[in-house]
Design brief:
Length: 159
């Protein structure tokens, strides 16, 4: 004869096992979802890196080409010069705001210097491996061979 107590404990054991399996399946699903969202977030930061780096490169080009009359063309001494060109008395901007490097926590860019020590380009200081490895704009085709984000250099070289 089976007592009522043993029947209820069997049901409790089955319920416990069901909940345990549900927790394991939920954990696996959440892990997969977090990897998926992490990849999406990284792709968005890559797009932002391409946009910001390109904007800074264009601002360096604008700075270089807009030397005051009678002055030699030159690169900026610091990135802040793109926000307010010190060569002019009135406010002259080449960049609307100071963009941060989206691939690093600090947000600080590495700089590419020309022989005179002036800034002719920027790059991310991130050593992470890029997800994007193709379909770059023509001027950034060299990024396809990059092993790290720090290899993505946004440099203005006058012709």
């Amino acid at each position: 004869m089976v007592s009522a107590y043993s029947k209820s404990s069997r049901k409790g054991g089955f319920t416990y096992l069901s909940v345990l399996i549900l927790v394991v399946i939920s954990g696996i699903a959440l892990t997969a979802a977090s990897k998926y969202w992490s990849t999406i977030a990284k792709r968005e930061r890559e797009k932002e890196l391409l946009f910001r780096g390109d904007q800074i490169k264009k601002a360096i080009e604008s700075y270089y080409k807009s030397a005051p009359k009678g002055s030699a063309q030159e690169y900026p001494q610091k990135l802040e010069d793109l926000l307010r060109d010190p060569r002019y008395l009135e406010l002259h901007r080449h960049l609307r705001k100071a963009y941060r490097d989206p691939m690093t926590k600090e947000g600080l860019w590495g700089v590419v210097l020309e022989a005179g020590g002036r800034i002719k380009g920027v790059f991310s200081k991130s050593e992470a491996r890029p997800l994007k490895n193709g379909d770059f704009p023509t001027e950034y085709q060299s990024f396809e061979k990059a092993k790290r984000y720090s290899d993505w250099k946004f440099v203005y070289n006058p012709e």
